[in-house]
Amino acid sequence: MKGRKDYNVRFADMQRLLNNLGFSYRIKGDHFIYWRDDIPEIINIQPIGGMMKAYQVKQIRLLFENYGIQEDEK
Q1: Percent of the chain residues past pLDDT 70, beyond the cut
Q2: Three-class HEC string of the chain
Q3: Burial state string for 32-42 with b = 16 or more CB within 10 A and e = fewer than 16
Q4: Bridge partners of residue 45, in order along the sequence
Q5: Using CA atoms, how far apart are residues 15 and 3, in angstroms rounded to an integer?
Q6: How far is residue 9's CA from residue 68's CA, in Å, rounded to a whole number?
Q7: Contacts from 61-69 at CB under 8 Å and sequence distance 24+?
Q8: Global confidence as pTM
Q9: Phi and psi at residue 35, in whole multiples of 5°?
Q10: pLDDT at 72 exceeding the cut of 90
Q11: pLDDT over 90 (residue 69)
Q12: Do residues 33 and 20 make contact, with C-beta atoms less than 8 angstroms apart?
């Protein structure tokens, strides 16, 4: 997940990544709200035509950087 690729992330792929990283979620309308007990922030995402919104991908990437979350951790 970097820079220009922020516009080309499928919503289902992001859900799979968050699930694999141990995030739980709930759905409220079209909002998917993800959390993890060891992280005080939540992730709030909505699909747009099966894709992620670029700004939300960037927010998630920054959250991963801030909390030292590696995309390959389980």
Answers
A1: 92
A2: CCHHHHHHCEHHHHHHHHHHCCCEEEEECCEEEEEECCEEEEEEECCECCECCHHHHHHHHHHHHHHCCCCCCC
A3: bebbbeebeee
A4: 32
A5: 19
A6: 21
A7: 61/1, 61/2, 61/6, 63/39, 64/1, 67/38, 67/39, 69/21, 69/39
A8: 0.88
A9: -150, 165
A10: no
A11: yes
A12: no
Q: Higher model confidence: residue 3 or residue 72? A: 72
- Tokens standing for 62? 């920054």
Q: Specify the amino acid at residue 4.
A: R
Q: Is the pLDDT of residue 56 over 90?
A: yes
Q: Summarize pLDDT for 6-26 with one digit per residue, the tens.
A: 889 999 999 999 999 999 999
Mean pLDDT of the chain: 91
Distance CA(29)–CA(8), nearest Å, equals 23
